[in-house]
Amino acid sequence: MEENRTFRDRYMAGETDFEEIFSLTGKWNFSDDTRTLREFLGLTPEEEDVWISESDEALEDLMEKEKNTRILFVDLDGTLLNDKKEITEKNRRAVDDALARGHKIVITTGRPTVSARRLSRELGLVKDGCFAIAYNGGEIYDLYREKSVYRRTIPLEYVKKVFEEAKKRGLHCQTYNDENILIEKETEEVKRYQKMTNVTAVVVPDVIEALKGREPVKLIVMDYEDHNKLVAFEEETKEWADGKLDRIFSCAAYLEHVAPGVSKGSAMSILCEKLGIPMCNTIAAGDAPNDVSMIEAAAVGVVMQNAPEDIKSCGDYVTEADNNHDGIAEVIERFM
């Protein structure tokens, strides 16, 4: 509703000029509003600090810069990376150029944070303005400052239940601590997964004990040979899981389990709020079912040319180039 939109909302959308802040401040001074002035105006803590410690002009300069900042949320496999799991030289140059112009680049992946961090270093995506959304939205990590800025976990009792149900059906199940994949039995699935993510799996007698009281962000139940076994597992555990966990297929072989409400799309909104970037300045690019939430949430939702046809219908724009031919450079040149 219009009355709930703050000065900052309207300024970032280009619907008002900076001078309105002064009349609104006067209105707040003579009102009974219980909110702080920052809350009343919708300013971020950083903006309030600049306003107090510097000047009106400094705040206006900061907000103008923020208004023009674009943020690109980009999937890794099949999107930023080619089929050899490499970033093409043209994609790399386009990303570097966007960062140099003050924009933000956020790699979004189902991979664990440790894998996203390692890959980001290899790709050179550790500059100011680089972030990672890992675990399909379960954790947000500042790659430049090397710190987690958001983390949503799964209760240990739910972890135990999923492992037990997967074991009954002969399905591989895994979770994570900060550095490793945790499994109770080595399987062909985890061997393939280790090779792809460059994260070491550790076999433990009891995953719950190995977690040492620290709740994980994600579980995966896997089967590379028979997708229908995963579909049956999802259906047979649906009554128990409803309201406790959200599940999604990131590919035919992976049934991902995260806390309710966790998705790439929800993490996108959380990071934008933390950075003070309006949602109207968001772009998201992906190619798989677990990318749909962010593609639909973004102001500009981009689907890669190599994506399945049903995913292409979810976006605002489909790239002309695929992930092997600089598709992300095309996105940056067109929208940033």
Automatic annotation (TrEMBL):
NCBIfam families: Cof-subfamily, HAD-SF-IIB
Pfam family, one: Hydrolase_3
Listed name of the protein: HAD family phosphatase
InterPro entries assigned to the protein according to its UniProt record, in alphabetical order: Cof, HAD-like_sf, HAD-SF_hydro_IIB, HAD_sf
A molecular-function term among this protein's GO annotations: phosphatase activity
GO cellular component, one term: cytosol
Annotated organism of origin: Murimonas intestini
